[in-house]
Each structure stands twice: as structure tokens, then as C-alpha cells.
Amino acid sequence: MSEFLGGAEDGPDLDERLERSRQLADFAERVRKGDLDDAPDNVDAGWEVIRRLGIDVVVEMLMDRDGRAVPFGHRDNMNLHLIAYEMAQGFDRQGHAGARRLYEGFATVLNDFLDDQLAEARSAAYDLSALGEYVYRWWDRYRTLVMWLYKVLGHLDSGYVEKERLESLTTVALRKFHRKIYSAEMGEKVTRMLIDQLNLERDGGDVDGHFLTKCIELFVDMGAALNQKSIKSIRSLRATVDDLGEYERNFQRPFLAASAQYWRLQAQIWLDACDAPAFLRHAERAILEERSRARRYLHSSSEILLLDVVRRELLFRCGEAVLNDAGSGSRVLLARGDLTSLRRAYHLFREVEPCLALLARHVQEWVTEAGMSVLRRSGAESAAEKGDDGGFVRELLELHASHMELLHSTFEDDPALERSVKLAYTQVVNADAGSILAAEKSNDRGGAEEKSDAKAEEKSGGIGGGGRLAPYSGRTTKTSSGRVKNKGPKQSTNEVLVRYLDRVLRGLERGLGEAAVERSLENIMGIFTYLTDKDFFLEVHRNLLCKRLLGLRSGASATVAGSRRGISEEVERERAVIAAMKLHMGTSFTSKVEGMVNDYLIGQSLQAEYRECVAEEGPADGGDAGEIKTAAGDTGPAYDFEVQMLTTGFWPSQEQLEPRLPAHIARRLAHFEGWYAGKHNHRVLKWIHALGEVEVKAFFPPRGSKGPPRTYTMTMSPFQALVLQHFDADPGQTFAVSALRDALGLDDHVVSRVLHGLCCRPKTRLLKKTGAANAVALGDEVCVNLGFSSKQVRFRVLQPALQRAAAQKVVKADRSHAIDATLVRTMKARKLLAHNELVQECLRQLTHFSPEARAIKLRIESLIERDYLERDPDDSKKYRYVP
């Protein structure tokens, strides 16, 4: 319809077009020569030419009334522009009569054109669906006319309009359309028509997208027309945020309300007819289609509002019903592993806070139940003597790894869901499986079931009986009143986890390659973060780390391919575990275990220096190359001597046992002390023989009359080696236990434990004794078991612990110190605090364990007794810091 704006040079009725062009050219020539400057009616004549030969032709063409109307050429447009420009200048360059007539004529032409449009529309019968087409056609015609008029009269904006401070031509045109067409004919009718068309598209019908876009854009343009004062042209019209009042009021609000009603009804239909996965698919498709629809038809500001409406109706209103559905809700999806539906549910509900919280709660309940099932199975297997200690941890680690994968791949590490998984595992790993199992058994009904449970417990020695390591609190029994009591030593999940970590680090878990070991350590450290009593975990880990480091051979620190600075693979793993704990708990938490590893590494270099010193001194007279120089003729046997330095405070405290050592060993210890004192002044050395290790090579007579002697290499404690040394001179002699005790200079209970590993263990019965087979008494006599035989050429002789593990006692003392330090630090900073505030602040700062309020209260009383704190004289519930 706007082909004449470009000025086509050919078309129908060429003669008529040429005649009009000739008339325009003649009048333009008169204007150019100044023939109209003095004419009294020059303004009227100029407007008449513009109106008759220009405007009327365009109007006839737009209204499609005159089939003989021809488009303009470039020359015609130039002549019309020249006439209008000279007319605006007043021909004689005096006054504004011509410009005023053009400005007023512009308004008159637009009024007449719009009146004709309305008359045509009112004479035709159209329904609501056709109204939009009429309005679109009106706007298209009107827009074309305004753009053509601006080509001819646009110079008025930079001259007459600006000087007189009038509205620009485009502003006048847009406001007239708003007043005569937009306000009068459109209103609610067109809005309803557009909503019906959009709903038709939602239902799968075909609509004219270009038509919808243009109709909706008109609301925006009308808002800009009312708000902006000087619009240069329709082409340059750009609506701003301040111009959206008309669009929001007349279209956006009704459309959003209608959309809410539409999706509310649609959601109810889906709820009645679909299960949860199908509803989620429908909702996802609806949101995607609405986003696309908003971007194609609506203003950019409406997209987020429309999506909010859809989410509110489909997700806010229906989300809880969908997620709580008994047959297909989120609990069922989690149970059957429908990851696609779970991922879809998360993507839909992650911006709907109540539904995301509900999904997180379901995930937490599901993870908790899965973890508790592992605890119950582990307890039942241990009671029936079917499981092993590592089986429970392995199953728990596999479960945790699967949940972490679900959290990462399906829920995209969402903080809310990550928090729910953390809460679930915190409940699981800190639970008492024995109590859980006992509580379930207490709810069992039927005498036959109770009898069978009692028999199973009695046969197995109780749940976790027989000294087995189990993730629960000892044995459970039932009383006559029906209550369940726990018996036996407590073995928590905390301790089971740290002992499994010890097995992995020592390489005792079969079937674990290098990559599997790394994954296991990572998963164990993941479980570690959920423990509430991390200090107890660390203390047990410290005791086990002590055994692992001291059990490493000196050759273990040799350079391993791929490792740095000659650190062994075992030490690298220890450091990796410590680094993971430090990442979660801080440097102060791991300072002791870090010091232990550093001591081990320093000890290796120290041992190498000592070897060089011994090599430089040379062998003693008559001795071997490995022996130091001492008194002539008293060298003793040659042996490899290694020392590991342990810094007090880092390593677990040990009981000081001072046995009577052979002279050659005492000389070697004295030699090392002298050498070390020469390198480090003011350092005191104390020997802890209980942590030492001796490798003994033993020769037993052949089984028959011929053949070589049987040779075994045995690793044992120094005390056991000292016992065997008494039989070197004469393997056939017999010693009383009391005599060995006097020779060693040790207590009775220590000697009995030392001899127990040598006499009472079937696989390592190197000595024979009189008396009871499984106990050592002072009156017993022992001798070498010359008939000893073993399938292994190299083995370890175990020795019962010489002192009970004091992890609980150490942790209790450390906790008291930690609570005291936290209380004093807090009060020193705050000076005055109420009791509850002080307790809460203490609980907030203590992250490596969760003290009870009663324990904090006792420590407060202790600090008051020691004059660190005092009660406020005005309020006994408040405390003051005593400087």
C-alpha cells in the first residue's frame, strides 16, 4: 500500500498521471520564479494545489475508491515539497500564514480521513473477531498517510512548530488516532479479540501471528504518543518504560488476568486426568510455549509477568498436590529412580520456593530412610554374624556417592537440596543403629517372633557381640517390662568410619585400585563433614595414624614414580586426608596430625644423617660393619638400628616403660643420644619402647632328620624380642614367667600381655608354656616350641595392647579446654552477657563437636570458681568478665 512513497515512475493511466505531473511542475515553476509572492490568495492557491494534486490522490489510493488513481513519481514529490516549503516561508519571506495553513490543513486532512474510516466501519456489519482486522487496516492506512504527509510537510517541525512551541506533526497524528479510533472503537473489544486469538493458539489453533504482533504493538505506540511531546516520525517511534501506561492498562492487565484463568482451568484438567510425570511434562511444555509466545507477540516487559502467572497457576497452586501424590509424587519418583521426571520437577520448582522446600523435604526423608536402612541391615548382619565391619561403611559410601551424583546431575547442586542431603546424612551418620534396631524389635508383635529374636541374639552373643566392630551401641536385650536396654561397649558409626579409613590407607581393602582408593578417600571425607563429634574422629584417627607411620619401613620414603620430593605414596595419601579435614575444619583442627606427618618425614632425613655418622666412624674391633665403636671385645650382634623422632604434643601419649636392655642395645641408644645432643641443644630425649618394632630372624630345626633348618622372619614388639633373646644361648632351657618378669624389669600385667602373643596365639605360638592355654600366670614355665611351623615365611607376632585406648578420655579433656577457651574469649570481648546468650555464642563457635548445654553450664561454674567470670550483682542470670 505504500509503494507510492518510493515514487514509482510507471503505472496505469499514464496520461492522467502525466497531466497531474505537468500541473504540479507548472505551479512549482511559478513558485520558484516568485510569481505568487505578491498574489493576495497565494496561500490558499498553494494549499489547494497540495490538497488536490497530492493529498486527495493519496487518500483515494488508500481508501481504494478511485481505481484510476496513480502513484507519484520522484519529481512529483519534489515539486510538492517545494510548494509546501515556499508556502511555509510565506512566499515573500514574511509572516507565518502559509505555515499556519499547512499545520492546520494537516490536522484537517487527518480528521477527515479518520471520519471516513469510522463511517466505513459503522456501515459494515462485523463481529468481534473481525474488529481487530478493521483496526489493523485502519492503522496501516493511517500510518501510510502520515508518513507520506511527513515527507511533504516534515520541514514544519524544524521551523514553524519549533518556533511556536507546538506539537510535532507525528505527535498530532498519533494523538488524533488515539482519540478517534483507539479510545472510541478499540478498548475492551480489541483486547478481548486478542485474548481470544491467543487462547486459540494455546489450544492448537492457527492464527495470524503478524496481525497479532501489529495489533499489540499499537497499544505501545499509543502510549508513546500520549507521553512523548515531540515525536519526529512514526519510523523513529521508540517506546520507553514510561510510555507503557496504555499498554499495561488496556492490554497487559486484562491479558494476564485471562491467562491466569485459562491456566487455572487447564491445570485442574491435568490434575484430574494425569499422574505427576505427565503433569510435569504438560507444565514444562506450557511454560516453554508461553515464553516463546511472549517473545513473538508481547512487549519485552510482559515476558516475566506472563511466566509468573503461568508458574503461579500451574506450580504454586498445584505443586504441593503434584509432589505429594501418593502414586506418582516425588517420593515415588525418588524410590523408582525416575531421574528425567525428577530433573523436570526441579527445573520447574526451583523458582517456586514453597514447592522447592517441599521437594527438599522429600529428598531429605528419602535419603534419611535409605541411610537408616543401611544401619538396620548392618546391625542385623552383625547380629547374625554375616557381615564385616567394612561392609557397612562400603555400603554407606556407595549410597552417599549415588546421592551426590543425583544432587549434581539432577538437581544441579542446588543449595536447598544440598542442605537437605546434608541434614539427612548428619542424622544418619550420628545415629545409634543399635537403638534403632532395638526400637524396631520392641515394636514387633507375636510371641514367636520375639522368641526367634531372643534365640538369634543369644546364639550370636547379642547384636555386635563377641568383640566385633559394629556401627551401633553394643548388645540389645529385652526386659520383662518390654523395655530394651543396650549392653556392652559402645561402637559408634564415627569410630567405624575412621577404622575403615585406616584399612583403606593401609591397603587392606581388597579390590581397590589406585583410582578406587582415591574415590574412597574422597567419599570418606564427604561423610566426615556430617559428623557432629569430629574431635573424636580426629583423636581415633591420630592413634591409628601413629601406628601407620611407625609401621612404615624406612624404604617406604624412597621416591615413587610420579610423587614429589621423594614422599612415599602412603604419606601422600595421609597428607591428602589431612588437607581435606583442614579444608572443612581449619588449620588448628589438624595441627597435631600435620605435626605427626612432618615428624615422620624429618625422622627419615635424621636417620640418613645418623647412618652417615656411623659409617664414618667405622666398625668396632672384631665387629661387623653395622656396629659402632665401643669397648673392645664387647660389640654385641650387628643389626640395623633406626630411630623415629616424635614431638611431644603431636603424638598420642604413651606409658613410659623402661625394660632392662642388653648392653649392646643400651650402648647404641647412648651413642644416638650423644650424637643428637651435639646437633640439637636443650632437647630432652625419652625412649618409648612400646611403639618400637623389631624384625627377628629365627632358625628352627628341620622337621625330619635331614634337611635345612626352617627359617622365619618375624616382626614383633621390642618386649617380645627381649623375651626371645633369653633363649639364644640355649633354646632348650625353660624359664619361669616370674623369672622373665624380673629379668625384664616390667610389671606383671605387661609381662603377661607380652607372653600372650608368643604362647597363646595358635598361629604364632613360638613358646610353649605350662598352665592354662589362653592365660599367662606367674607360676607358669615357658620354653621354645621347637615344633613350631608356619606356612608363611614372613609374618607378624601380635601383642595385646599394653594400655587401653584413651580416646574418649582425651576427647573429654580437650572438649573441656575448648569450652573454657571459647567462654573466656567471648566474655573478654563482650564483658557482660546473659546466660542464654553466652551458651548460644559458645555453641555457634564450637564447630568440631556439639556440647550439651549442661556441659557448658558446668564449665561456666568452673570458670567462676577460678575467678575468670563472676555473676552480675544486679542480675544473677548475667556474667561479667573478670580482668
UniProtKB/TrEMBL annotation:
<dbReference type="InterPro" id="IPR019559">
    <property type="entry name" value="Cullin_neddylation_domain"/>
</dbReference>
<keyword id="KW-0832">Ubl conjugation</keyword>
<keyword id="KW-1017">Isopeptide bond</keyword>
<dbReference type="GO" id="GO:0031625">
    <property type="term" value="F:ubiquitin protein ligase binding"/>
</dbReference>
<dbReference type="Pfam" id="PF00888">
    <property type="entry name" value="Cullin"/>
</dbReference>
<dbReference type="InterPro" id="IPR036317">
    <property type="entry name" value="Cullin_homology_sf"/>
</dbReference>
<feature type="compositionally biased region" description="Basic and acidic residues">
    <location>
        <begin position="441"/>
        <end position="460"/>
    </location>
</feature>
<feature type="region of interest" description="Disordered">
    <location>
        <begin position="440"/>
        <end position="491"/>
    </location>
</feature>
<dbReference type="InterPro" id="IPR045093">
    <property type="entry name" value="Cullin"/>
</dbReference>
<dbReference type="Pfam" id="PF10557">
    <property type="entry name" value="Cullin_Nedd8"/>
</dbReference>
<dbReference type="InterPro" id="IPR036388">
    <property type="entry name" value="WH-like_DNA-bd_sf"/>
</dbReference>
<protein>
    <recommendedName>
        <fullName>Cullin family profile domain-containing protein</fullName>
    </recommendedName>
</protein>
<dbReference type="InterPro" id="IPR016158">
    <property type="entry name" value="Cullin_homology"/>
</dbReference>
<feature type="domain" description="Cullin family profile">
    <location>
        <begin position="492"/>
        <end position="759"/>
    </location>
</feature>
<feature type="compositionally biased region" description="Polar residues">
    <location>
        <begin position="474"/>
        <end position="491"/>
    </location>
</feature>
<dbReference type="InterPro" id="IPR001373">
    <property type="entry name" value="Cullin_N"/>
</dbReference>
<dbReference type="GO" id="GO:0006511">
    <property type="term" value="P:ubiquitin-dependent protein catabolic process"/>
</dbReference>
<dbReference type="InterPro" id="IPR036390">
    <property type="entry name" value="WH_DNA-bd_sf"/>
</dbReference>
<dbReference type="InterPro" id="IPR016159">
    <property type="entry name" value="Cullin_repeat-like_dom_sf"/>
</dbReference>
<dbReference type="InterPro" id="IPR059120">
    <property type="entry name" value="Cullin-like_AB"/>
</dbReference>
<dbReference type="Pfam" id="PF26557">
    <property type="entry name" value="Cullin_AB"/>
</dbReference>
<comment type="similarity">
    <text>Belongs to the cullin family.</text>
</comment>
